[in-house]
Design goal:
Elements lengths: L12 E2 L2 E2 L14 E5 L1 H4 L27 H9 L2 H4 L4 E4 L3 E3 L4 E2 L4 E2 L7 E7 L6 H13 L3 E6 L19 E2 L10 H4 L9 E2 L11 H10 L2 H15 L5 H16 L3 E4 L8 H20 L11 E4 L12 E2 L4 E2 L8 E4 L2 H4 L4 H13 L6 E5 L16 H10 L3 E5 L25 H6 L1 H19 L2 H4 L1 E6 L3 E7 L2 E7 L4 E6 L9 E4 L5 E3 L4 E6 L4 E5 L1
Parallel strand pairs: 3-4, 3-18, 4-9, 9-12, 12-13, 13-16, 16-17, 17-18
Antiparallel strand pairs: 1-2, 5-8, 6-7, 10-11, 14-15, 19-20, 20-21, 21-26, 22-25, 23-24, 23-26
Helix pairs in contact: 2-4, 8-9, 12-14
């Protein structure tokens, strides 16, 4: 969908058994290594669910369902693809039931393959899989120390099609279209034409849409859904306003399956208090899940929320400025915001980039964090669109303070330029699994991501710690978080490398270079290692 410009310390117990980080470091969201994937484009694990709701019209290039599903993600969890990358959180695009029909607004037929065109928040779209699949996915991910982050769309429904009538005007507005000139015309408007906007500013009680009532009765679930809604509103005291229905439906996935967080879509297009309520409701559901499933509790982390505030960057500290109003989203439910500055900041030198982010995260954002990305599903100007700077991209993404967001295929140089695909569709090609087996260059960049990713996963100091340069030439630096300290060298010469570690590591201490796998001992206040690589990742054994 073309929206307006548009997480380690692994758990203690799961239903599958004991899970611990190999280095026994606590999981902190501030240091998470997140893998973001389009559910429909990652892997087709079940070909029997590829067509549903008579979605048979020919779609424009990369604008129809391609077959990816939860079963495909489960298969890659099973074969340790994510674990080998050091991934400790997976964020997937929305998996709720999408509009059944297709739109055609100048780019050819487009279906809701991306997940952002909701028809019914209470159901999974059968193209993506079943709730049984979701339960299995979450449990298997948790068993391997991987958190699951779903994607929440509260701001709008899906477009209107011949198969998908509009929600009633007590629920949505269909005009005006946003022009983004001020707060009002960014929040009380539709993102684009034919994308009905939920009246999230309203707290007026309203009845359920008839289209949902009729649908649920046909599916035989009306009574159970109403009973659940009655219990929710009685427990919370919230009015039966549209936003609270949707929050309840999204929180059900937390309470029923134990998902660990939500990435929240189009955050700045609602009043900011919406998200404070959303985080509170999700946290309550997270607490209920933990009480009901004590053997599945990973740790005592709070429910995680990261917001997409388009245009927000770390340079803005905690404030987003609409021109006529300034908003602090960190004070309205968010632990983290997506950092739109990073793809530009990544052109800076290592030291300038690392020191800047460390200082800002330890001062202006202390206690909060940002999610850094270089590629995404709807940013047409990524850092390395032609995939010519893949090693640099991986190094900067995975070693910069803050949360790292690996977009599916960053680690395999998946193409971002597809002939015939228009707009953001070109960013959403199918995962290039065949290249991993057939291309040495792909295998090499994947190995680079794996080494850096696992090192990051084992050391919360990478994303959450304090950065300190040790030597500018050759370039060495430390990261420190509580008792976790690492020493890293970049752009080094191949062969023998020597660095003074007095005041960093004690004499006689054994160090392992996680990049080469070699082990050395601190001698005479120095760490000396001979490897063919230009990267050294020293960790204490």
């Amino acid at each position: 969908m073309k929206k307006i410009l548009i997480l380690l310390g692994f758990g203690i117990l799961t239903s599958c058994g004991s899970v611990k980080n190999s280095s026994e470091k606590p999981f902190v969201w501030e240091g998470a290594n997140v893998y973001f994937l389009l559910t429909d484009r990652f892997k087709n694990g079940d070909i029997t669910n590829d067509i549903n709701f008579d979605r048979k019209e020919k779609a424009a290039v990369l604008r129809g369902f391609e077959g990816g599903d939860l079963r495909g993600i489960i298969q890659k969890i099973d074969d340790n693809y994510f674990s080998d990358l050091g991934i400790n959180a997976i964020w997937m695009t929305p998996i709720v039931e999408q509009i059944h029909g297709a739109t055609n607004e100048g780019t050819g037929n487009t279906y809701g393959f991306h997940g952002y065109w909701t028809k019914d928040w209470t159901e999974l779209d059968p193209n993506f899989g079943t709730k049984k699949d979701l339960k299995e996915l979450v449990e298997k991910a948790h068993h391997k120390g991987i958190r699951i982050v779903l994607d929440a769309v509260v701001n709008h429904t899906g477009p209107v099609t011949k198969s998908d009538p509009v929600y009633p005007n007590s629920w949505v507005r269909t005009s005006p279209t946003c022009n983004y000139q001020n707060y009002q015309n960014t929040t009380a408007c539709t993102l684009v034409a034919n994308l009905p906007d939920i009246l999230t500013e309203s707290s007026e009680p309203t009845a359920l849409p008839k289209i949902l009532i009729d649908k649920w009765k046909k599916e035989g679930k009306y009574e159970s859904e109403m009973k659940s809604l009655d219990a929710f509103f009685a427990r919370t005291g919230y009015p039966r306003a549209p936003k609270y229905y949707i929050m309840k439906w999204l929180a059900d996935y937390v309470e029923n399956y134990g998902i660990d967080g939500y990435r929240v879509d189009t955050v700045k297009h609602t009043n900011e208090d919406v998200w404070k309520d959303f985080q509170k409701i999700c946290q309550e559901s997270f607490d209920i899940f933990k009480r009901n499933n004590p053997s599945k509790v990973l740790d005592n982390n709070l429910f995680f929320t990261v917001g997409e505030v388009y245009g927000y960057g770390i340079s803005q500290k905690q404030i987003y400025d609409f021109g006529d109003k300034k908003v602090n989203y960190y004070q309205n439910g968010f632990k983290s915001l997506i950092n739109f500055d990073f793809k530009g900041d990544a052109n800076k030198s290592y030291e300038e980039l690392f020191s800047q982010y460390s200082k800002q995260l330890q001062s202006d954002l202390n206690g909060k964090t940002v999610m850094n990305y270089l590629t995404s599903h709807d940013d047409g100007s990524p850092f390395d669109k032609d995939r010519k700077r893949t090693y640099e991209a991986g190094t900067k993404l995975l070693l910069t303070p803050g949360i790292s967001q690996v977009y599916y295929g960053d680690e395999t140089a998946r193409t971002l330029t597809v002939p015939g695909a228009e707009g953001d569709a070109t960013l959403r090609s199918n995962m290039n699994w065949s290249d991993i087996k057939g291309t040495t260059a792909t295998q090499n960049i994947l190995t680079h991501y794996q080494k850096l990713g696992k090192f990051r996963a084992n050391h919360p100091s990478i994303g959450a710690g304090i950065h300190q340069m040790v030597s500018s030439s050759p370039y060495w630096f430390t990261r420190t978080y509580n008792d976790d300290k690492v020493l890293i060298g970049l752009d080094l010469d191949s062969g023998i490398k020597e660095i003074s570690v007095s005041g960093i590591f004690q004499e006689g201490l054994q160090l392992r270079d996680a990049y080469s796998g070699k082990v050395i001992k601190v001698k005479n206040g120095k760490a000396i290692i001979n490897t063919e690589y230009t990267v050294v990742l020293f960790e204490k054994i």
